Structures are given as C-alpha cells and as structure tokens.
TrEMBL record:
<dbReference type="GO" id="GO:0046872">
    <property type="term" value="F:metal ion binding"/>
</dbReference>
<protein>
    <recommendedName>
        <fullName>Neuroglobin</fullName>
    </recommendedName>
</protein>
<dbReference type="InterPro" id="IPR009050">
    <property type="entry name" value="Globin-like_sf"/>
</dbReference>
<dbReference type="GO" id="GO:0020037">
    <property type="term" value="F:heme binding"/>
</dbReference>
<keyword id="KW-0561">Oxygen transport</keyword>
<feature type="domain" description="Globin">
    <location>
        <begin position="1"/>
        <end position="149"/>
    </location>
</feature>
<dbReference type="InterPro" id="IPR012292">
    <property type="entry name" value="Globin/Proto"/>
</dbReference>
<keyword id="KW-0349">Heme</keyword>
<dbReference type="GO" id="GO:0005759">
    <property type="term" value="C:mitochondrial matrix"/>
</dbReference>
<keyword id="KW-0408">Iron</keyword>
<comment type="function">
    <text>Monomeric globin with a bis-histidyl six-coordinate heme-iron atom through which it can bind dioxygen, carbon monoxide and nitric oxide. Could help transport oxygen and increase its availability to the metabolically active neuronal tissues, though its low quantity in tissues as well as its high affinity for dioxygen, which may limit its oxygen-releasing ability, argue against it. The ferrous/deoxygenated form exhibits a nitrite reductase activity and it could produce nitric oxide which in turn inhibits cellular respiration in response to hypoxia.</text>
</comment>
<dbReference type="GO" id="GO:0005344">
    <property type="term" value="F:oxygen carrier activity"/>
</dbReference>
<comment type="subunit">
    <text>Monomer. Homodimer and homotetramer; disulfide-linked. Mainly monomeric but also detected as part of homodimers and homotetramers. Interacts with 14-3-3 proteins; regulates the phosphorylation of NGB. Could interact (ferrous form) with G-alpha(i) proteins (GTP-bound form).</text>
</comment>
<keyword id="KW-0560">Oxidoreductase</keyword>
<comment type="similarity">
    <text>Belongs to the globin family.</text>
</comment>
<dbReference type="Pfam" id="PF00042">
    <property type="entry name" value="Globin"/>
</dbReference>
<dbReference type="GO" id="GO:0019825">
    <property type="term" value="F:oxygen binding"/>
</dbReference>
Amino acid sequence: MERPEHELIRQSWRAVSRSPLEHGTVLFARLFDLEPGLLPLFQYNCRQFSSPEDCLSSPEFLDHIRKVMLVIDAAVTNVEDLSSLEEYLASLGRKHRAVGVKLSSFSTVGESLLYMLEKCLGPAFTPATRAAWSQLYGAVVEAMSRGWGGE
C-alpha cells in the first residue's frame, strides 16, 4: 500500500481507538445481525448465550472484543510492514479454525468492521478511507487464512 492510505488508516483509527470496547461492541452487534449462526461458536464454561445481547454483555465476550481491537491496532501500527505479523496472524487463524470458525465468516467480519468505522467516523469515512481499510483487512485475512492451511 502507498503512504496516503497508511495515513488515512492511522487517522481514522485514532478516533476509534479512544473507546475500543464501545466500537468493538458495535462491530460484533453488526456481525451477529448479519450472521446469527456465529453466536453458538461463543461458549464459555459450556454455556450457550440465549441472544446476541446476552453475549455482548458477558465479561468473557467483552474480553474477546478487547483482543480483536488489539489485533486491529497491531495491524494499523504495522501497516507499512504487515509481514512482521504473519506468524502471529497465521496462529490466530489456527485458533479460530480450531473452535469451528469458517474462513468465509471473515468476509462478514470485514463488512462489520467497515460498518463500525462508518458509524464512528460519519462523513470522515470517505470512499478513499473505506478502500484503504478494505485493503488492510484483506491483507490481514490473507495472513490468517494460512491457519486454515491456505498458503
């Protein structure tokens, strides 16, 4: 990616990263709207959540939201050299595969990420910013997909 995109990503992330839990919750609420079938994958102590709201308010899930936002933060920090995160992202992919997540669900996660950014940034979420984030997210998923055996 070229420099201007990096700057767009950094600027837009600054606004989001001030309250990661709040924005991460918007991302996952949207994800469960778009793909309700993902809800049963989140079980803690063998307890299934009765609703997305139930899930989104549980301490264990809030911890997962924090972790997801930290991964995005790492990608933003290393936007100029994502290859430095390759091993980490591949192992993250393996962890997700192990709990039954399908690689295809990550395209829905991408849509939910863009939705959250748009909600957070409003008019500042320009087509150029959207394109930059799509590119970054695509690169992250590509690295994670190695955890599913894709080289």
